[in-house]
Design a protein that fits this description.
Elements (H helix, E strand, L loop, with lengths): L2 H27 L15 H14 L14 H18 L1 E7 L5 H10 L4 E4 L6 H14 L6 E7 L6 H18 L4 E7 L2 H15 L6 H6 L7 H7 L13 H14 L2 E4 L3 H13 L6 E5 L15 H8 L3 H13 L3 H9 L8
Parallel strand pairs: 1-3, 1-4, 2-6, 3-6, 4-5
Helix pairs in contact: 2-10, 2-13, 5-6, 6-10, 9-10, 10-13
Amino acid sequence: MNRNNAKSLGQRSKSKRLASWTIGTLMLLAIPALLYVQTPGNVSSEAEEAHTLIKIKKSEKSHSQLNPPSTSESSFREKAEKLSNSFNEKGGIFVFLHIPKTGGTAVRSYLMDQKPNETSYLGCWKGRKVTEASISDYCEHGTPNKTIVVYEAHGGPPCLFYNMLSNKLGEWRELAEQNQVPFFAFTMVREPISWYQSFYNYFITTVGQNVTEAGFFDDHHMKANMQCAELFGISWRRIPAVQVSYSQCMDALALLKKQMDWVSTTDKFSTELIPLISYLGNFENRNLNVILPPAPRKKKLVLGEFSEKGKEHLRNWTEWDVLLYNDIQGSYDFNNWKDFLDANGALHPVA
C-alpha cells in the first residue's frame, strides 16, 4: 500500500486516537499557568550582556538539515517535502534529546502507542556504547530494512547533554548527510517556573520524601537555571550543586540551535511537535524501532504548587532559563510547518 492510500485509510482512526491521546497527556502535564517574562526593568547587567550574546549567536549558521526560521516559504516547502519523502523512501534516524521535566515522557508514550516493531531499552545507560555505535553505523549505511529508528537520549551521567550537543550529534549528522541518510534531531524546553513546579513534584515523589518548599530550595541538589545546567552538562544529581553561568547557558543555547532541527515547548508538543515528527516519519505506516532508557518505576505523583514567596524566589533564580526559553520561542517559528502540514492533511484538531 502506498503512503497516500495508507494515510487516507487511516485518517479517521488517527484523528480519534490523536485527540484521545492528546487529552490524556495534557492532563498529565496540566500545571497552573506561571509564566514569567523578563522585562527591561528587571534584567540585570549580566542579563543585558547575555541578551547581546544571544543576538550574536542567532547570526551563526545552523548545520541542521532543515531550519525553518532562516528559509523562505518556497524554499522551506521544498526542503520539508524532500525530507519527508526521504524518510518514506529510505527510513532514517530521529534523535530525541529528552531534557528532564519538559514532557518527554508524553512523547515517549506517543511513540509507544504506535506499536513499534522493535523496542530497545538501552539509551544512555546500560549498553550506551553499543547503542551509539549502532547509530553511527545507521548514519553511515542506513537503517535495516528502511526502518525508522528513534533514539531517546535522556540526561544524567554518562550521557550528559553537552557531550551529545558538542560531539556526538555533530558526528552523526555529518555521517548521515555524507551518506544521504535522513536524520532529524528534536527536543523540548519548558517555561522555567513551570519546569521547577514539575521538578518539585518529582523531587517530593522520588528523592526528598515529604520535603518542604523551603527544604527543596535549600537541598544540596538544587541549583538555579536547571534547564541551562542540564544542557551544559551539570546534572541536578551532582552534589554539591554547581551553579551554571550565563556564558555557559548561552554556549549551550548556541549548540542547541546548531544541532536541533526542531525545538518545541512543552505547552505546544501535542499541537506542533507530534504532528511534525509523525508526518515526517510516517510512524503509523512504517516499521519503527524505538531505543529508550530503562523504564522508570511508576510512583504516585504528588501535586503541589509553590507559594507566592516560592514563585518570587524562582523569578530571581531562573533568569538564564528565561532567556533560553524566550530565545527558542523566537527562533523556531511553527508557521511554515503549520502551513506545510495542513496542506498535507497532517494536522488533526482535538475534538
